[in-house]
Amino acid sequence: MNLKTFRGGIHPPERKEATCDLPIEHVPTPASVVIHLTQAVGAQNQPLVKIGDRVLKGQKIGDVDACPAAAVHASITGIVKKIEPAPQSNLRDGMAIFIEADGTDETAYMPPLDPFACSREEAIKRLRDAGIVGMGGASFPTDVKLAPPADKPVDTIIANGAECEPYLTIDYRTMLETPAVVVEGLAMAAHILGADKAIIAIESNKADALPGIQREIPAHAHGVPMEAVLVATKYPQGGEKMLIKAITNREVPSHGLPFDVGVIVQNVGTLVAISEAFIQGKPLIERGFTVSGEACRTPKNLYAPIGTVIGSLIPDVIQVSDDLRKVIFGGPMMGVAVPTLQTPIAKGTSGVLFFNTAEATQYEERQCIRCGRCADACPVRLMPMLMNAAIAIKDLDRADALGLIDCFECGACSYSCPARIPLTQRFRLGKDLLRNQRAKEARHGK
Ligand code: SF4
Ligand code: SF4
Questions:
Q1: Fold of the 120-279 domain
Q2: Which pLDDT tens digit goes with each residue over 250-274?
Q3: Is 371 near ligand 2, meaning CB less than 6 Å away?
Q4: How many CB atoms are located within 10 Å of the residue 1 CB?
Q5: Region 409-436: what's the mean pLDDT?
Q6: How close is the Cα of 231 to the center of ligand 1, in Å?
């Protein structure tokens, strides 16, 4: 069967077998959580609580009057012990609220709201109040994504069930275990957006999730034309631009966004959060994630409160071996190696990988041999070796002209490079430098 896909990409070992058959386990309520005040792309939140306050599970504890932004909420009931910087998975210490559990489970959820009966403005406000962000890793506020500019009408919404990162199986288990909730969340998102159709895209290595989803569509799609389709198993099939190309054959332009071609993509975990925000009035305070890797002796799919410190789950919930060398938040391709086990689970944490020495080995970087494999692998048709050379001599204008900003840091080029050049890391850094340079130029009126 010829499955839909995109040009370029790679086929890294999938390594999903350790967790793909394991049902999602709910962790016991932790004794304490560390909730970063800002967990979304956009403005910085301010605390709405102070040290000593008792907070209820679901209570809003951080927000800002700005857009884009996403509120944060207490994920357990207890007492605010500290408000101070703490390590987070983006490697920057960010201000966080430390809550100690008081052993009760009182909640402060919002009243249920029917997205099919309320106004569009009320529905968007509910998403904002629930602090929902893209849970595939991007952490972009969902209320903003589902309200595109009036001159950018969206006709199609795609549920991203590709989960192309090696090791990760949480989206797969979510589709397998709660297909009705995924379908319901997609119908709600499509309705709010005013989209004509909704498509659930599943990679072919997870084809057994398809029938369950298809069975739930008639009862839970609320009249939204909806179908579930398989796409080829290839990395990075779950990248927004790749999925849009594979499903609709539309190409998001350079420097453009999905709504420029009339499409919005939402991760399946986000769809579950949308459904819960309306049906239960529950803000985004918990999430599922995969724990795996060769140094993890208990690979699992877990569901835990946001703010659960990963080290606090060791050894009762997760056991690691003595040769643990590296901890990655996210998948191995796009995730970030964190320096401490004190890092808490955030809204964007799809996995935590524990790598041993063999997996973590950093190969010595050699000179570029101009083989072109990085360009063949790049799904957005960039020339990674040229961008790398431009960044190396600090010629950021040239890197920009080569399309640096279109790089979405998928890691396919680094993976393909026989000289072991850390291209993706260089591009991440190069983009930061370029943004700073452009901001400086704007300040000086250039
Ligand atoms: S240049 Fe960027 S988008 Fe292209 S393969 Fe490398 S990391 Fe992915
Ligand atoms: S894959 Fe590596 S060695 Fe080959 S051209 Fe690209 S940067 Fe150079």
A1: Rossmann fold (3.40.50)
A2: 999 888 899 999 999 999 999 999 9
A3: yes
A4: 5
A5: 89
A6: 21
Q: Which of 364, 366, 370, 387 to mutate to test the pocket of ligand 2 (most atoms within 8 A of CB)?
A: 370
Centroid of chain to Cα 91: 16
Q: State in Å: Cα 170 to ligand 2 middle.
A: 33
364 by Cβ neighbours in 10 Å (0-12 / 13-18 / 19+) ranks as: exposed
CA of 242 to the centre of ligand 1 (A): 12
Report which bound ligand comes closest to the CA of 421: 2
Residue 362 has a pLDDT of 54
To which H or E segment does residue 95 belong?
strand 94-101
Q: Does the beta carbon of 112 sit less than 6 angstroms from any atom of ligand 2?
A: no
Class of domain 24-109+283-359: alpha beta
Q: Give Dmax (Cα) for the chain.
A: 61
Query: What is the mean pLDDT of the segment spanning 401-417?
Result: 92
Q: Which residues are registered as beta bridge partners of 101?
A: 78
Q: How far apart are CA 249 and CA 251, in angstroms?
A: 7
Structure tokens at 221: 């799609």
24-109+283-359 against 120-279: fold identical: no
Bond preceding residue 418 cis, omega within 30 of 0:
no
Backbone torsions φ then ψ of 371, nearest 5 degrees: -80, -20
| Segments making up each domain of the chain, as ranges | 24-109+283-359, 120-279, 373-443
pTM for this structure?
0.90
